[in-house]
Specification:
This protein is of the alpha/beta class and about 210 residues long. It has helices spanning about 20-35, 40-55, 55-65, 70-75, 90-95, 110-120, 140-150, 165-175, 200-210; strands spanning about 5, 100-105, 125-130, 160-165, 180, 195. The protein is globular and about 50 Å long.
Length: about 210
C-alpha cells in the first residue's frame, strides 16, 4: 500500500455538522433562482438527477444548460469557518499514518481548502483531487478513480479509500482498492473495515498490518 485517499465532506468531519445542509439549501436556491426550475419540481428533480448521474449538477448540465463552474461557485458559498473548527486529534491521527495521503472529493478545490483550513488540516495531504479531475464526472463513476490513480502513478491495489458513501467504496473495491467506510454501522460486503470517525483510521490500519 502506498496511498490512502480520503473523501472530504461527511468523512473528515461528522455528517452531523451543518455543512451538508447549507450546501443542500444552496442547491435548491440555485435550481429555483438560476436554473428557473419551479419550486414544486425541485425536490423530485434533485433526487432524480442525483440517483441517475451521481451528482445533481450533472443533471442540471445535461437538461438545463447550467454552467458547472457557476453552479459549483454558488452552491459551495457556505460559511465553513463558522461551522467547522480545528480538530487537533484528527490532525495527529493523519500525520501518524504510514501512507501518503490525498483528498478525493466530489466538491471543489476551493471548498476543500476552506474545509481543511477550518479543521486545522493544512499540510496534511499531498494532493486534492476535486470534481474537475475527470471532466465533472463524480464518484462513484469509475472515470475519476482512474484519473486519480493515473495522476498518482499507482495501481488500485496500492491504494486504500476512506469514504462515507458505500456506493463510492463499491467502485473503489471493484477496481482493487482497500475500503474503509466512515460513519455507518452496517457496512456492505465490499467494505473492508468500518469506523465511526476518520480519527479511527490509523487503528484500523494497524490491525491490518498485524493480520
Amino acid at each position: 500500500m502506498e496511498f490512502i485517499l480520503f473523501d472530504l465532506d461527511n468523512t473528515l468531519y461528522s455528517a452531523e455538522q451543518d455543512v451538508g445542509y447549507q450546501i443542500y439549501l444552496r442547491i435548491n436556491r440555485y435550481m429555483i433562482e438560476v436554473a428557473g426550475i419551479p419550486l414544486d419540481d425541485v425536490d423530485d428533480l434533485r433526487h432524480s438527477y442525483w440517483k441517475r448521474y451521481g451528482l445533481t449538477m450533472q443533471g442540471l448540465m445535461r437538461h438545463h444548460g447550467v454552467d458547472p463552474e457557476d453552479y459549483l461557485s454558488y452552491v459551495h458559498d457556505v460559511d465553513i469557518g463558522g461551522i467547522l473548527h480545528p480538530d487537533p486529534e484528527l490532525c495527529l491521527a493523519l500525520q501518524s499514518l504510514p501512507l501518503r495521503r490525498a483528498v478525493f472529493t466530489n466538491s471543489t478545490m476551493d471548498h476543500s481548502k476552506r474545509v481543511l483550513n477550518a479543521l486545522g488540516l493544512d499540510g496534511s495531504f499531498e494532493e486534492i483531487f476535486d470534481i474537475r479531475v475527470a471532466g465533472y464526472l463524480p464518484k462513484p463513476c469509475p472515470e475519476p478513480y482512474h484519473a486519480v490513480l493515473d495522476r498518482l502513478g499507482i495501481s488500485a491495489s496500492g491504494c486504500i479509500m476512506v469514504d462515507d458513501s458505500p456506493d463510492n467504496l463499491r467502485t473503489a473495491k471493484d477496481l482493487g482498492m482497500g475500503t474503509i467506510l466512515v460513519g455507518q454501522k452496517t457496512p456492505a460486503p465490499w467494505i473492508d473495515a468500518a469506523v465511526q470517525e476518520a480519527v479511527e483510521v490509523p487503528q484500523v490500519l494497524s490491525l491490518w498490518v498485524q493480520d
